[in-house]
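User: Can you predict the 3D structure for this chain?
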Amino acid sequence: MATRTLNKPPSRSQKLIEDKLPSKCLQSKDDIKCEIARVAYLKAESRGFQAGHELDDWFEAEMEVLK
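Assistant: Here is the predicted structure, written as structure tokens:
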């Protein structure tokens, strides 16, 4: 999984994600739930936020993060 380097500015997608996640997530990079939320958000974004797939996104993100 790609992480942002200190000298590289955030991408537009990363900035949008950071704006939508609770500030607690930004302070605790190692928090598993925050990482799951980030991955689930990216999945939803890739589908154009089509409704009805929220749990699928979350469960898939859990599987990816926890494996």
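Residues 12-66 form one domain. Residues 32-46 form the longest helix (15 residues).
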